[in-house]
Specification:
The radius of gyration is 27 Å and the shape is globular. Strand 12 and strand 13 form a beta hairpin. The protein is 36% helix and 31% strand. The chain has four domains: 276 residues, Nucleotidyltransferase, domain 5 (2-Layer Sandwich), CATH 3.30.420; 77 residues, ATPase, substrate binding domain, subdomain 4 (Actin, Chain A, domain 4), CATH 3.90.640.10; 105 residues, Substrate Binding Domain Of DNAk, Chain A, domain 1 (Sandwich); 64 residues. The chain is an alpha+beta fold. Strands 1, 2, 3, 4, 10 and 11 form a six-stranded mixed beta sheet that branches. A five-stranded mixed beta sheet has the order 17-12-13-14-18. Strands 21-20-24-25 form a four-stranded antiparallel beta sheet, with no helix packed on it. The chain has 15 helices and 28 strands. It binds adenosine-5'-diphosphate (ADP) and magnesium ion (MG). Magnesium ion binds next to loops. The site of adenosine-5'-diphosphate has 21 residues, from helix 5 and helix 6.
């Protein structure tokens, strides 16, 4: 059995094909979405998902989130006494999803298809594969998230189609344009904003609340406990406004209460600047793919934040039609990954889908441009443009700049800036040239970029037939095999918090958080609940524990929703 995994920035899911449908498999708490947060509990045991998320603010040094942003880099995050790379943190999450799948399917699982954003570089893709390996999963295939969404919608069954995937998640916005032609799915363009998602909408709501109620009157909103509560409340209000016309934003502290009524219209106005920012990446993707809105056969909505009616309305206005939204937008990517897994397992009887990759960034060299009488160096000459389908080979001709120049040094860069200093330096090519007058020696620079992210840069001198080349393995942060083995052993030694205790641990973690977020009487009340629950746990009487859990959960729901 091969499972499908959506390894998201905010939430992750695991799914499997049951013969008829791609079914999302529940985690130990019975939820379909597992927050992409990992951590250690007080005993040093691994906790994942909701429990880790509750502890993110009460035990910041023992929990990590948003690590998908650092995939493919060497950046490390401390958890307790050790620093971990993004691959390792992802592996902890994957391990937990694997265990959930095994529980739900009643059989061991060793293989997975994992989704990655279409813009992921080769280094990021390799890191994702390594994360799978560290979790004891053979990664049968990586699938691009928009392609997975398309599979979930069954678009691969069409003869040919061009469509746009609009994915607005918790912290990222991705637009992709896909083309299906003769059974081949091609990512024609991808664009987006890596810092735009549901959480930014929550931040706006908090700012608005503070401005309206008056910062002077409120408790210190820079206190992490208060800030955290405001953000939670903002998210609750934002979700509520998806259904209701009106929602009340409330903060209660000691004996005091601050409250603000908000309508859907208010929300639209408050978040207008964010909604406006959704346009540019759409335009860019259409331009890069050389496609007009009228050429699009479908618009697919992906990501939890597209549940907002405001976002749906905006999409409908921008495209002049209703987007596809029959499926749950936060589940489609996992479903598509499970469909791809099923295809993989039976060597694709459900119509083979070949994924074509694009080079996600522009590759080029440093050049000089004429300025008055002289030349100014530091300019960027693109050779392979962003979003070119790979493998690709492109060349440009340049020439010497000064009289009797003896050598030419070519700096190789990746990035989108006009000036190389703002781009990433990848390497250098040096070639001796015969001394001539400036501009008389021409050099042919050829870049070849393959599916494995290998860039071969070559410079050729027609004047004497000389050639020099350099191969750049563009993966600065990829772990070496012996490093992987070492980290695998370390991860395997890490004890996992017992599955059957998770629901109780989650409640304790939540009580902990609420305790930290409140003051005075509220705090006393929470402490009372926590002590009572701990006593019940100590009795080890399942029946009494369950009863207490139900009772406390109900009280907390009152507390969190009504202030
Ligand atoms: P990611 O792909 O970033 O891992 P998701 O696609 O699961 O994450 O999106 C998470 C975001 O979706 C959160 O910001 C959450 O507030 C938002 N979201 C989920 N459900 C709703 C809803 N009903 N209304 C508005 N936003 C929602
Ligand atoms: Mg996502």
């Amino acid at each position: 059995m091969i499972i499908g995994i959506d390894l998201g920035t905010t939430n992750s899911l695991v799914a499997a094909w049951d013969g008829e449908h791609a079914r999302i498999l529940p985690n130990a708490l019975g939820n379909l979405l597992t927050p992409s947060v990992v951590g250690l509990d007080d005993q040093g045991e691994l906790v994942v998902g909701d429990i880790a998320r509750e502890r993110l603010h009460t035990h910041p040094q023992l929990a990590a989130s948003l690590f998908k942003r650092y995939m493919g880099s060497a950046r490390e995050t401390f958890l307790g006494t050790r620093a971990y790379r993004a691959e390792e943190l992802s592996a902890m999450l994957l391990r937990s999803l694997k265990a959930d799948a095994e529980r739900a399917l009643g059989q061991p699982v060793h293989e997975a298809v994992i989704s990655v954003p279409a813009y992921f570089s080769d280094a990021q893709r390799k890191a994702t594969r390594i994360a799978g390996e560290l979790a004891g999963l053979n990664v049968a295939k990586l699938i691009n998230e928009p392609t997975a969404a398309a599979l979930a919608y069954g678009l691969e069954q069409r003869e040919e189609a061009t469509f746009l995937v609009f994915d607005l998640g918790g912290g990222t916005f991705d637009v992709s344009i896909l083309e299906l032609f003769e059974g081949v799915m091609e990512v024609r363009a991808s664009a987006g904003d890596n810092f735009l998602g549901g959480e930014d909408f929550d931040d706006r709501l908090v700012e608005h609340f503070v401005a309206k109620v008056g910062a002077a009157d409120l408790p210190d909103t820079s206190l992490p406990a208060i800030a955290q509560r405001l953000r939670r409340e903002a998210q609750r209000v934002r979700h509520a406004l998806g259904q209701a016309q009106l929602a009340r934003f409330t903060l209660r502290e000691q004996e005091r209460e601050w409250s603000l009524e908000l309508t859907q219209g208010d929300l639209a106005e408050i978040t207008r600047p964010l909604l406006d920012r959704l346009r540019a990446p759409i335009d860019r993707a259409l331009r890069d793919a050389r496609i007009k809105v009228a050429d699009l056969d479908e618009i697919l909505l992906v990501g939890g934040t597209t549940r907002m009616p405001l976002v749906r309305k905006l999409v409908a206005t921008l495209f002049g039609r209703i987007p596809a939204m029959q499926l749950n937008p936060d589940e489609v990517v996992a479903q598509g990954a499970a469909i791809q897994a099923a295809l993989q397992a039976r060597h694709a009887s459900l119509e083979e889908v070949v994924l074509t990759d694009v080079c996600p960034y522009t590759l080029g060299i440093e050049t000089s441009v004429q300025q008055g009488a002289g030349y100014q160096s530091g300019h960027y000459l693109p050779i392979i443009e962003r979003n070119t389908v790979v493998p690709v080979s492109r060349s440009r001709t340049v020439s010497t700049l000064s009289d009797n120049q003896k050598v030419v040094q070519l700096g190789i860069y990746q990035g989108e800036s006009r000036l190389v200093k703002n781009n990433i330096f990848l390497g250098e090519l040096e070639i001796p040239v015969p001394p001539r007058k400036a501009g008389e020696v021409t050099l042919e620079v050829r870049f070849t970029y393959d599916n494995n992210g290998l860039l071969e840069a070559q410079v050729h001198l027609p004047i004497n037939g000389e050639t020099r080349k350099v191969v750049i393995e563009n993966n600065p942060g990829v772990l070496a095999p012996e490093e992987i083995a070492k980290r695998l052993a370390a991860l395997e030694a890490l004890k996992v918090h017992p599955r059957d205790k998770q629901i109780n641990t989650l409640l304790l973690a939540r009580l902990d958080r609420l305790y930290q977020e409140s003051l005075g009487d509220g705090r006393q009340y929470i402490a009372g609940l926590a002590n009572h629950f701990q006593q019940m746990l100590d009795t080890q009487d399942e029946h009494r524990i369950r009863e207490a859990r139900g009772d406390i959960t109900l009280r907390l729901a009152h507390l969190e929703q009504e202030g």
